[in-house]
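Thread: Newbie trying to understand structure tokens

Hi all, I'm a second-year student working on a class project, and my supervisor (Dr. K.) asked me to get a predicted structure for one chain before our next meeting. I've only ever worked with sequences, so writing a 3D structure as a token string is new to me. If someone could post the tokens and maybe explain what I'm looking at, I'd be very grateful. Here's the chain:
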Amino acid sequence: MRDVIDFCLVSILLVIEVINIPMKTLAGKVAIVSGAGSGIGEATALLFAKEGASVVVADINDKHGHDVVNKIKLAGGESSFVKIDTAKAQDHEQLVKETLRLYGKLDIAVNNAGIGGPLALTEDYPLDGWQKVMDINLTGVFYAMRYQLPAMTKGGSIINIASILGMAGVRQSPAYVAAKHGVVGLTKATALEYADKNIRVNSVGPGYIKTPLLTNVLDEATMDVIAKLHPIGRLGEAKEVAELIAWLASDKASFVTGTYYAVDGGYLAQ
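---
Reply by user tm_fold:
Sure, no problem. This is what the structure looks like when written as tokens:
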């Protein structure tokens, strides 16, 4: 019986090769994407599902999360929603437990959830605003990995979403800049710790991307000014960031860990 199964598998692979059917790069993988109800997280979840992964959509917004799950299922993919407040350690623990209950394993995690926070000079920065930004943008990433890493028993890939402000500064956003710099450092430290366990950990630094994080707080004139800060002359699209994340999640990036990748239209090259 085993010989028959092996023969059938070989035959299928030969047929695929002959008729040149592209293999899905994440076929059979199970992924968690936080902040997946909109923006970069949504684009990543949709692309992961298109590439064959079962995607756990994690978000604090029930409606947005369920909407993304429905989009994936309507396209023929597999997905589930889990509500999470990424500032709470117990929510991350429960998210991983639910992922293992639903799909039996965890191969990929994208820690994307984040907020912009208040705008103010450092001496005037609200203390509660500082704490909230740190809790979600940095401590939340630590909590996420703390529970994701033990679940990746056969290796895996973690992608932490930082920012160009994880490598550069900007006025009146000390909490955001500090948190994103912290994400880059945390990523490097964790990558070193788990490289021998075949768990790759990388960070991605988007430039200014056309997502609700930006469009909900800025008018068109201000966004035009920000677009001109990028040598490429425009804002980025969420799907452009998702393409890099999907590559890092795949076996195509099997020798890549501990690295920061900018998707910024040339912003950091200046």
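A couple of things are worth pointing out once you decode it. The radius of gyration is 19 Å. Residues 127-151 form the longest helix (25 residues). Feel free to ask follow-ups in this thread.
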